[in-house]
Design a protein that fits this description.
Length: about 190
């Protein structure tokens, strides 16, 4: 099995037979230039399957934004790091294939990631999804009287709860942490 670094050409991964499976749980995450889908852009996209195999991990060069200092302080992705990366339009078809082959989507705060991907033209078919953030909230158990629901917690809090250490705000690291927490929540590990 191939476990590439960020520098590995993602197109070589698309040819891996596991990518063509009809039943595949997909864990995915994005890092962005800001918080507003349709205005801000995706800087990094990562997706793995339920076994942890990398389906895609790539930086993306924004086409409208030249700098994103606030987001850079959070995700550490600088304009220089993405200057030679493909644009989203260059990988859109391959990202779409990942979701077209998915039998279930696993996310952490999936509304954010799906919002950005949808704004960029990715279509999501009607398949089951599991948002680890929403499932973890009642497990952690901090109630919000204001919202009348359990408070949503950051991925770092969830990962710490289950004893998983990682470098947050790198989308590949985040999907690995999300998969680990998912497996803990559903009782696989």
């Amino acid at each position: 099995m191939v476990f590439p670094s960020r520098e590995t050409d993602y197109k070589t991964l698309i040819k891996i037979p596991m990518f063509e499976r009809e039943i595949m749980k997909v864990v995915f995450d994005v890092e962005t230039t800001g918080l507003v889908a349709g205005f801000d852009e995706i800087l990094q996209f990562s997706a793995i399957d339920e076994m942890g195999n990398i389906l895609m991990n790539t930086y993306l060069k924004p086409t409208r934004k030249k700098t994103w200092p606030d987001a850079q302080r959070v995700n550490g992705i600088s304009p220089e790091m993405v200057s030679d990366a493909p644009c989203f339009s260059d990988v859109k078809e391959d990202i779409q294939k990942i979701f077209d082959n998915a039998s279930e989507l696993i996310t952490y705060n999936g509304r954010f990631d799906i919002g950005f991907l949808s704004a960029a033209g990715i279509e999501f078919k009607d398949i089951p999804s599991f948002d680890v953030m929403l499932a973890f909230a009642p497990i952690y158990g901090e109630w919000s009287n204001h919202y009348g629901a359990y408070k949503w917690k950051k991925l770092t809090t969830c990962a710490d709860y289950y004893g998983y250490k990682f470098n947050a705000h790198d989308s590949l690291e985040d999907v690995r942490a999300t998969l680990y927490c998912y497996k803990k929540i559903v009782g696989i590990v």
